[in-house]
UniProtKB/TrEMBL annotation:
Keywords: Membrane, Transmembrane, Transmembrane helix. It is a single-pass membrane protein. It is found in: Membrane. This is Neutral zinc metallopeptidase. GO terms for cellular component: membrane. It comes from the Bacteria. The keyword Transmembrane helix applies. Pfam families: Zn_peptidase. It comes from Qipengyuania soli.
Amino acid sequence: MRLNPFDTGNINVRSSGGGGVGKAGGLGCGTIVIAALGYFIFGLDPFQTAAVVDQVGQQTQQAGPANTDEQAICTSSEYATEACNALDSLNRTWAQAFQQQGFGNQFKQPALDLYGGGGVRTACGAGSSSMGPFYCPGDETIYIDTAFYDTLERQLGAGGDFARYYVIAHEYGHHVQKITGIAGQIQSAQQQNPRMANQLQVRMELQADCYAGVWAGKNRNLIEPGDIEEGMTAAAAIGDDRLTGGRVSSENFTHGTSAQRSQALRLGLQGDDKACDAITNVG
């Protein structure tokens, strides 16, 4: 995907944790999904994740203040530059979408933390790079250890720049859910009906996939041959059924099956964010 170079005036980027943002770990999507993704990909025990997270948080606190030199962070590696280019494009695309729908004042850019060193402390608790990229609604920040992209390609077979763009666009989709109030509605529905909690979480994830497709669909002129296939491969690779290999029942899925995730991404590629609304309809 031929994205324009990032403009540091249109992005909010920092690097926390104990190291840089080189091209070589990975996090989930909030507190519950972090544990799930860590279990599915790296075999972490979800019942012990809280203890692990606390330890990582203590280590991260000693790492010092975050680096806020956006130019240096964004040019520190190929992956970092890609992430910054994608963030700039996502900010512009979603700001315009909100404006067109008359909700321009509601839009707010998220921050991007390209942390390194294995761990990071967030408003949602602490996380480690063994869990995958995630969005924390508490501080409205997308967290990515760019080393996850190597895991995505080597262990899950989902390589290519569009696969990586899909990952950050998905997490950005969770930010859209936060500022539109959808995330709050789903959380309330989960509290009112705990038995539906996982199914509602799946809807959240599928809508984020759909929103990722919306971003790409609204920038279809920048898509190159093979990009869509890379995205579909990535979406299928991180389906709950594929990741768990039958070890977890469908009632415990939290992200959706490979087929569901691919279908949601394809729906979004039409470029109409309203088409994604029905996915999380809890009425």
